[in-house]
Amino acid sequence: MSCAVILTAIPVEYMAVRSHLLELQEEVHDGGTIYERGKFVGNNSRSWDVGIVEVGAGNTGAAFEAERAIAYFKPSVVLFVGVAGGIKDVALGDVVAATKIYGYESGKVQEEFQPRPDVGESAYNLIHRARAEARKEDWLQRIKSPLGDRIPKVLVAPIAAGGKVIASRRSSVFKLIQSNYGDAVAVEMEGRGFLQATHASKQVDALVIRGISDLIDGKSRTDKAGWQEIAAYHASAFAFQILANLNHTNLQNLKSVDTPSTASKLTGSRKREFTEALMDAFRSEKDLEMMLSYELDWKLNQVAGGDNYREIVFNLIDYAEAQGQLGELLEAAKRDNPGNPMLGEFYL
Length: 348
Hints:
Elements (H helix, E strand, L loop, with lengths): L1 E7 L2 H8 L3 E7 L5 E8 L5 E8 L4 H15 L3 E10 L8 E9 L3 E3 L3 E3 L3 E3 L2 H11 L19 E8 L10 H9 L5 E3 L2 H9 L5 E10 L4 H6 L2 H18 L6 H8 L9 H14 L3 H12 L3 H4 L5 H14 L3 H11 L4 H4 L4
Parallel strand pairs: 1-4, 1-5, 5-12, 6-10, 10-11
Antiparallel strand pairs: 2-3, 3-4, 5-11, 6-9, 6-12, 7-8
């Protein structure tokens, strides 16, 4: 039987997840964290051993508890399931499976705050499973609460995360997210720390799943109307739909087949060579921005920042290295500028 761990932040999220499990038993970590372990039977009678835990709000606690739970349960899949505020393209009760999480509080404070991209990505194979399940309505059968007049939809898209409870679209934090992370459709408080911890563990695939409980303005009103509970039950239903359809016996094989090729870390001299080659091939920040958009669908201001062009290119290489996508970056640059001699002579 394969194992999964599901983290939640608040009681309503925990209870929504708990409702899908059988044979629950309490377990206490030596460090004091209290878990419950239960059984979930998916499609074709595939069984999952599932550990669940409520970790409280915030990225720091989520990172700590994710790392502890991974060491304790040794799972192949780790999910964070809960609620979020909707920024755009979503309605109350919709579900968002995060392709990536932006840490919107990372940056440099000068006369004005200058964001510096801090991005975590969900597992490649779980993103594709989420997309497959989002195209169907089977997951709706797993919702434990009555459906309203509107059928909720699922988006597979970026989310922003930080330590602030955002209750107004006129707030400076909301405007910061809109200006710098324009493709984020929701905002929450734990996802970036969670993905930071799971990224450090090579044994797990991770995904963040959120139900939309408010649309920023009017948060107190929607909370009183019960939307936190509704959104939590919708998010948990979709999470277990993903688990039900995972071929968990081949998770690590899927990762090695589907994840883009990686390269070992560049040494200092090799990183300098790659920086010089990119700067030679793309003479301006705008040229680099266009190449990344055309070839990789990356937004430069979301993956790399800096005080000058050299620092931006250096940070871009750092980002690609951290994501295991150095090879993709090099090949994209060569496709866009095939005649550049410095790029042509550089190999990983």
